[in-house]
Amino acid sequence: MPHPKTAEALIKCAGPIECSLLPRLLHVTEAAAIAASYQMGRGDKNYADQVSVEAMRRMLNCLDMKGVIKIGEGERDEAPMLFIGEEVGTGEGDLEVDIAVDPLEGTNLAADGIPGAISVMAMAERDGLFHGPDIYMDKIVVGPEVVKYEKAHPDERIDLDAPVIRNLEIVAKALNRNIDELVVVILDRERHKDKIKEIRGTGARVNLISDGDLMPGIATAIRGSGIHMVLGAGGSGEAVLTAAAMKILGGKMLARLVLPTVANGGTPEEIEKEKAEKMPRLETMGITKDNINDVMGIDKLAPGKDIIFSATGVTPGILLKGVSLFGEGDARVHSITMGSSGAVKFTDTIYIHDKEKTPLRMA
């Protein structure tokens, strides 16, 4: 009789979406990453994004499923494909899924050849992912050790509205570290100037990044990454994708929707103008002036029970290597995939068309 703690238990508890679609989801992000990699460093972020979107959509439409884009490239009138509400897949089979995509997370990073660009997406059963509008989310992300610590110390909990020092004290205790040994990742934006000063005032170290705080968020749940917390306001779509992965990895994330003019300290007139433009659309998603400021946890952002996630590196990053191109359309790609069963895979894939011309080599 096999031991009850073997991998068989995880394999058997995988849901139908994870069993049927996760292996194919890897191919989707790989194709998008390879397409984007050909434009790496060429300085045209829009074209890099376009080719990755096109590749991702082509691959999605090969999957036997009834998929709906919930987090995508924008509204129907803003994006030619992978727009919010677009139906993808062959329409065959019984699987009905909601999808969050970012074919090229870090368009500027890819265009300039800077580390951290990825192709990423998540899926879940219907209503399994938050239907987020295209505005910002203010967030805090920490790993599973903090969740464990909170369970043992219910009076000490991470709080989006708490002073930074309060949250860092909890993380330090959970990780058995000093605060000056912690690293906090935050986007290098003017709106974060005071927050950065506050973090530094605690003695913690700050890792400023120009774009792409999705993978740093995931890295908080992986020991040895050197990242212990992610803070700040960024895209809501990226926040939902982060939440999908963090739910699988057992981490914690708190987030609140915020209009860009509010986050960036706009004038009262600018804020009111943006409210007039965006609130009607937000209200169709169930977001009103009464609940827009609500703090959401992972179970609100990613309520699904059968969630799958895949990310493939375009340029080298914290957890993933970048795409290596060999000519003739051959490539080597590095990805992370995971599902609600708890299984996490780092995959190193090599695509070679002609093995005689390009034989496999040991790394």
Map the helices and strands.
Blueprint: H1 7-12, H2 16-37, H3 45-60, E1 66-71, E2 87-88, E3 96-105, H4 107-112, E4 118-125, E5 136-142, H5 144-152, H6 164-175, E6 183-187, H7 193-202, E7 205-209, H8 214-219, E8 229-235, H9 236-249, E9 252-258, H10 260-263, H11 268-284, H12 298-301, E10 308-313, E11 324-327, E12 330-339, E13 344-351
Parallel strand pairs: 1-3, 6-7, 6-8
Antiparallel strand pairs: 1-2, 3-4, 4-10, 5-8, 5-9, 10-12, 11-12, 12-13
Helix pairs in contact: 2-3, 5-6
Architecture overview:
By secondary structure, the chain is of the alpha+beta class. It folds into two domains: 7-126 and 304-351, Fructose-1,6-Bisphosphatase, Chain A, domain 1, CATH 3.30.540; 136-301, D-Maltodextrin-Binding Protein, domain 2, CATH 3.40.190. The protein has twelve helices and 13 strands. The strands form two sheets. Strands 1, 2, 3, 4, 10, 11, 12 and 13 form an eight-stranded mixed sheet that branches. The protein is globular. The model has no long low-confidence stretch (mean pLDDT 93).
Give short descriptive properties of this protein.
single chain; 363 residues; alpha+beta; Fructose-1,6-Bisphosphatase, Chain A, domain 1; D-Maltodextrin-Binding Protein, domain 2; 2 domains; five-stranded mixed β-sheet; 35% helix
